[in-house]
Structure formats: structure tokens, C-alpha cells
Write a structure and sequence with these properties.
Elements: E1 11-17, E2 20-27, E3 35-39, H1 49-60, E4 64-68, H2 73-82, H3 89-105, E5 114-119, H4 121-132, E6 137-143, E7 161-166, H5 170-182, E8 187-192, H6 204-220
Parallel strand pairs: 3-4, 3-5, 5-6, 6-7, 7-8
Antiparallel strand pairs: 1-2, 2-4
Length: 221
């Protein structure tokens, strides 16, 4: 695949969805062949350096990205103190589903097949959204996710799903293995050797980005 440097300028967007106004960054290569919507979790946001690094690699693969804050600024400030919203999976899911519908109606993205990238608790929201919008979602990738929190929706996910977990993230590995066994569609579990939950070790995030890009380009193209 040609990795010639292509600068994709993120465009700030405001999504008035599900009764709130959410901030996002939409990045579309000129020849985009798909759109990946990011679902952040556990106190993260569209400014997460890890997810932005993954997004840049996806853009090199001719994939558009929508990095979206699933919490309002007020909710984010409250969550930083109380952690009351980051595990509110129904709330995160409703907003993610609404953002999928927004992308399907937006003139610049309506023709693009959609994938979901979920991190931490955002992975559960991504899987439930994939079950609720099964006709629209073509692929899902979870990074260090909590797919177990998707509960009964796991049995309804038909989109090809890739679960990526750090090799030293023992508890999350076991939770991912349990969720993996319940997925009915095409699936893969990748354990990144030596990586902890945040994939901060040298080369770990590059591995995540490569695996995600291969999965999305293979299923969205």
C-alpha cells in the first residue's frame, strides 16, 4: 500500500444529536474509501494522542475519520471528578448511533461505508451500535476495550470484529476472550506482546494502528 505523505486537515464539526451538541474532528482524504467513527471511553476525548495517532495511520490508508466527543464539555468536567458518565454505556451508545446516522446523512460522508473504532468503554458502545445499525456498520475494531460491557448485544453483532489487547493486560485479555467467544460474525483476537492497557510501550501503538488499518481497509474497501 502506498504510504506517500498526504496531509489531511481535520475539520471541526458540531453534531446536534440526541438532544445535545457534541464536538468532533472530521478528516477526509480526497479519495476516501470509507469512514471510521471513533468511540472514546474512560475519560478520554477526541484529543486523545493514542486515537489521533491511529486515525493518522487510517488516513494514510485512504480512510476518513471522525473523532467525536461523546460527552458534552459539562459532562466531561463532571466525569473527571465522579467518573459517572464513562461507564454509562447506554448514553454513549445512543450518541454513537446518532453520530452514525449523522454521517449517513452528511453530504461528504453519506456514500462512505462506515466502521467503528472503540477504545476502553467506547468499545462496548461501538459493539452495541454495530448491533443496532447492522445494515450500516461494515467493521469494528476494539483497542484495549471492554467488549464484555456490550452484554447481550454481543450475540447480535454481525460486522467483522477485531479485538486488540495488550499482552500484559491480564484482566482485560480474559474479558476479551469471553466476549470473543460470543461474537457470531467474522472475528479476530490480536494480543500485542509486551503491551499494557494503554499501549505506551515502544512500537505497541504502531502495531495497533497497522492491525486496525488492515482490518478496516480489508472490510470497508
Amino acid at each position: 500500500m502506498n504510504d506517500a505523505i498526504q496531509t489531511v486537515i481535520p475539520r471541526p464539526v458540531r453534531l446536534d444529536i440526541a438532544g445535545v451538541s457534541l464536538s468532533g474532528d472530521l478528516s477526509l482524504p480526497a479519495d476516501a474509501r470509507g469512514l471510521v467513527v471513533f468511540a472514546h471511553g474512560s475519560g478520554s476525548s477526541r484529543h486523545s494522542p493514542r486515537n489521533r495517532a491511529v486515525a493518522e495511520v487510517l488516513q494514510l490508508g485512504r480512510l476518513g475519520t471522525l473523532l467525536l466527543d461523546l460527552l458534552t464539555e459539562h459532562e466531561d468536567r463532571a466525569d473527571a471528578t465522579t467518573a459517572e458518565f464513562r461507564f454509562d454505556i447506554p448514553l454513549l451508545t445512543d450518541r454513537l448511533v446518532a453520530s452514525i446516522d449523522w454521517a449517513q446523512a452528511h453530504p461528504q460522508t453519506s456514500s462512505l461505508p462506515v466502521g467503528l473504532f472503540g477504545a476502553s468503554t467506547g468499545a462496548a458502545a461501538a459493539l452495541i451500535a454495530a448491533a443496532r445499525r447492522s445494515a450500516k456498520i461494515r467493521a469494528v475494531v476494539s483497542r484495549g476495550g471492554r467488549p464484555d460491557l456490550a452484554e447481550d448485544s454481543l450475540d447480535e453483532v454481525t460486522a467483522p470484529t477485531l479485538l486488540i489487547v495488550g499482552g500484559r493486560d491480564d484482566v482485560v485479555i480474559e474479558l476479551n476472550k469471553q466476549a470473543f467467544a460470543r461474537l457470531k460474525g467474522p472475528k479476530e483476537l490480536q494480543i500485542v506482546a509486551g503491551a499494557t492497557h494503554l499501549f505506551e510501550e515502544p512500537g505497541a501503538l504502531k502495531t495497533v494502528s497497522r492491525l486496525a488499518r488492515e482490518w478496516f481497509t480489508g472490510h470497508l474497501a
